[in-house]
Amino acid sequence: MMDRRLYRLICVFLLLFIAARSYGSPTGTHKTARSTVFSLFNLKAKSRFWSEDVMHSDFNDLESSNDGKMGVLNYTNSGNIANYLKLLEVESMYLPVPVNFVFIGFEGKGNHEFKLHPEELERWFTKIDHIFGHTRVPHIGEVLTPFYKISIDKMQRHYLPLVSHINYNVSVHAIQMGEKVTLVFEKAIRILARRDDVSGDREDEDTFWQVDMDMMDVLFSSLVEYLQLGNAYNIFILNPKHDGQKAKYGYRKGLSESEINFLKENKDLQTKIRESETIPESVLALEKIKRPLYEKHPMEKFAWTITEDTDTAEWSNICVDALNNVDQFYRGKDTADIIHGKVMQILKGKNEDMKQLFGKELISGDLSGIHAECLTDTWIGKDRWAFIDLSAGPLSWGPAVGGEGVRTELSLPNVKKTIGAVAEISEDEAEDRLQDAIQEKFAVFGDKEHQAIDILLAEIDIYELFAFKHCKGRKVKLALCQELDERMRDLKNELRSFDGEEYDEGHRRKAGEALKRMENWNLFSDTHEEFHNYTVARDTFLAHLGATLWGSLRHMILPSVADGAFHFYDKISFQLFFITQEKVRHNKQLPVDFKALKDGLSSLLLPSQKAMFSYHRLPLSEEPALAMAFSVARRAAAVPLLLVNGTYRKTIRTYLDSSILQHQLQRFNDQGMHAQSRSTLEVPIFWFLHSEPLLVDKHYQAKALSDMVIVVQSETSSWESHMQRPIKAALAAASEHLAGLLPLHLVYSQAHETAIEDWQWSVGCNPLSITSQGWHISQFQSDTVARSYIITTLEESIQLVNSAIHHLLMEHTTEQTFKLFKSQERELVNKYNHVVGLWRRIATVTGELRYMDAMRLLYVLEDASKGFVDQVNTTITLLHPIHCTRQRKVEVEFDMTTIPAFLIVLGVLWLVLRPRRPKPKIN
User: Fold this and answer.
1) 906 or 856: which carries more pLDDT confidence?
2) I want to staple 124 with a disulfide (CB 3.0 to 4.6 A). Which of 194, 542, 817, 820 is the partner?
């Protein structure tokens, strides 16, 4: 036993001794890879735009190296497998987004005859950042601050980053329409506008007019279809001339508050509407014709197209005839007839939400559920178009009690207050402004004596600034400008007189510099310069317009989504739990519009998705656990209330705490909230019907949580001020739960690292807008839903691929593993190329707005990404036994101390292992 222990001890000693004097085989040095990937995905400053050429020519498939000696050398010198394969972690991926900015009334025939030149538009619009990062807004928590402050918990951990790997590369195509299109929209505004207040007959410059948005919708949709612009997002910018009698106007769907009151009071009109057996066809019916403006979107950073009148002549003629018919139809009709015609159009129209609302209220005869929508000067259409009317207004909307991002009268650029203010200056105003400038300039001199050259230079500065603002680029020249032109000639002669020897060097130098500057002027030329008329007013206007259009991209086309991962499912199962205080025997007894709710929830789905519905009634009186959850989550808070007379007072508001309620409902529902199947998503919607006023988290009618949607509905009569039915709020919460859709006014700001608000874009007849009662999402939001699914899958794919590449970065290359790795290389490269190929295909079809084609590739991408990861793990597992079992080459250095060391070791071994005399064994 003792001999065996000594033997082990000596073996350990020998190994330590030899290891101290020996060196193993060299291994490859670890090289740090750059955190980038090929230029297809990481577009740097030299190639910021992902064009079709970049996609097909800038990516080279990875090829295997030779198996000879050079292959082994390249393999070992690379340091790790990722470097050998030239695989780099993906920082970002770019999805192209085609956008058309369509300018109407900017050809010189619109408001104030303002003409927009291609060069100056490009000068300003190329400064708009066309690269947008996909962003996510963290969940808003309950904080002890005023309710109008948005507070984000920055310490939250996020499954996907708030600033995504995915970026949008916006291709801007500016299209300037001709005079015929401008005349059509001016005529439409004039004919389709009716008085906002029908209680009086007074019409003056302060009278507000409402333009029928239902008919304008037909006009915009027709133009988009005629020019075949549906393969891009279209933002129309209108600058129509003001009608002298209808100077102040806005756009609205439905009836104004005055018209609703008129309808409520006129019982005969209600009866006439209910008894109408036939509903007339739409008055504004346009023939569907097509004349494509382009074969394919330019897909460049900036492109400019000017349409000729011949391009739109056929469409313009059809629209003018249709508008004349509308004008003839309404001519001579009184208020009752106009309201009757409008209500009948709503009942016949294609807006199911408005149709159901008006139909139900007219049948009941109550009309308490019909409310006027806000007048706006911007609108999001049902298809891929929106518009901004710079001549409309002045209008404002947003939070009434407190908040940021309120839409004011100055939110949009104003042609009249910028370009018009300069263009319409009179002779008297010009003289007054010149005198003010002279007094301001010479007030600096005071009573001190100054040299003549200084006074002349000051006079030149005044005339130069004045001429640049009020003389340059004008079509009708001011008489004062001609006088200044003559005075400038005199000043040149006086400056030339300073060349004499009697003046000192300083004066001669100042005079010479001033003459050189004046020689380059063209401020008083009779020739109208096409592009050099950059007045301060124009620059101010264009800068404001650029910022406005940037906001339209950020809020309408490429909005932020809620924090979370949103996956695509073939089937969506909506499980609606209606929780009442007392038992209800049938769904028809519930105060819920099931048809509207079902239609609204179905509109949230993509065309390839299937909706399923199940309804459950849960009375609190028979469900003790549910009643306990409701009671525990019920709270009260003091909040300010804005009264009709404009004053505030404190009110006690009862609400359900969503965090507590979610926790209690999770315990109540033991079966779980979501289906385990990857093809079906179950969406539980808990709908609380209560007799007293009740909200969620103090301020909401509905809220989306991670695994459910909570909705509260109270009796309308119980509210001191009107609170609309919760269908719109429920659909907004459901859209957030399904795909992360957020209210249009909310967007993530990288500068603030939190969410910011801009209520200017909270428009349109959709559940995410506060200015309308409509609840059907537009194509803008439907595309956002699709992109949310696509980006989640792309993001997860990038994370998987990056993690696999990181493992390859950690795997060193040695000569011993070369042959085994070569047996796996081709499969590894093929799987990687397959993933990258799917990335490219998804980006291509997404850039063409073919989202349904992209949906079909998502499951394939998930499998391909997992396949690449599995192949990486298989390869690394195959190489690991080599590192463990491969015999290392031992090299021992011999010097003058080696032999004595061995002799000492041998001596010790002999003393320890020499034979000894056996001792007697004593029992």
Assistant:
1) 856
2) 542
